[in-house]
Hints:
This protein is mainly alpha-helical. The protein is 69% helix and 1% strand.
Amino acid sequence: MASKTSGLELQDTELQLMDRDVTGSKLGTVVDDHDMQRMGKAQELKRNLRPVAALSFASVLQATWEFVLISNYEGLYNGGLPGLFYSYLWTFIGFGFIIASISEMASMAPTSGGQYHWVSEWSSPRYQKFLSYITGWMSVLAWQAGAASGSFLTGTIIQGLISVRNPDYEPQNWQGTLFVFAMVLLIYIFNVYASDMMPILNNLLMILHVLSWTVILIVLWTLAPHQSAEAVFVTHWKNLGGWSTMGISVMIGQISAIYGSLSSDATAHMSEEVKDAARNVPIAIAWGYFSNGIMAIVLIITYLFATPSVEDSLNDPTGFPFLYVFQKATSTAGVNGLTAIILIPVIFSNILFNASTSRQTFAFARDKGLPFAKWIGKVDTDRKIPVNAIGLSCIISCALSLINIGSETAFNAIISLNVAALMYTYIISISCVIYRKIWHPNTLPPRRWDMGRWGLSVNIIGLLYCCFALFWSLWPSDVHITLENFNWSVVIFLGVFFISLGMYFVKGRREYVGPSVIVQKD
């Protein structure tokens, strides 16, 4: 895989000379201006993310090792020690083909719209309006659900820490919701009032991301009791969901690994704020994913060796197996300290996640894909950011957290839609670029991040893995299904899908034209 110029007739030296503001006000390079004109978009957002800041943004937002560590319950429940390790290994490889495909598409069309825009450009003209509209709705669903899930995790982890310090404390759902409100308020303040500081802050957080990983590794290797290599890689499989075979159990448990690998395409939705986006966005996506993935593999191995008992970790009063492992390795103060250095990058990951979510929502509203599109798609003229879309995303996170008061199961089902809905958008967008490469290869825009003759094969493998991950993400964790353990995400996924169909026939087919209609062909 290489980064190169093609079709723009610009040499590297010329690109460096033209890496300047088009109008003198942080609007990007000449190449950025060319891409925006081709896609029929006005440059409304400020391009203040340079290559290093874009890479830091991708790495800190994805936070793979952090999320795999704090949300591995399902992987241990259905899979055990070896199951969690091997499922992450093949998820890392399989998702790599998705990331390569997304990087290529982001290079051809660097826009905040992401998947729905790519579908509109590269699907069959006969179906582009319909497919793009549905993909836009599912993408909004995926990102909004993901934004809520991050704040929910941080809030409940704080409750878990209180339980560690005070064993008599009984966490209440309404208290967790209040913690979510606090997290969302912090997210709004940073994304609106500290937006100019974010590029510098991203780079500092990248350093913290690596240092925190190093500290956790050192503590677990030196202080925690250790399992044998045979237990970690060979013998300690668990099928606590009661499935007929261990293979099915592990397939269901891989949701932990998939969840930790999601949102790798976040930088694509920040494309209109990245300098020389056609080159730097795909680099940030690819390098952010693979560097995070390698760190996660090392962390998972360390964590599994430091887990004395899978059953005890799953039954820990805090509800988080990693807090059980920390308690076995260190004191209460040590647990608080270790968790704090995880929570800080995770909280900022949530902040950046909201930024990406709001840009995707803003872009779809700009193309009249959402109700109240004019208000949602408005850009603050002073800050050059979509303040209304940021606020709306925060409101949706708070609204979803209210469900937790009545039913934690229902709330968890809603946030698990992050996997299913995002996989759906990947399937449609990658299918469209495969269609173009096979039947109309000359109609694709030039790309500066090119996989050459391997591109089509990578796209096809990525598509197959998307279908595989989507299928298993909708299964319940237990074979004996009750109202408490049923995976309601399949019901909600289909519900929102049919709602989007209804919105299309009532409103979308008259108002939504799709980006491809206004794209200016070279």
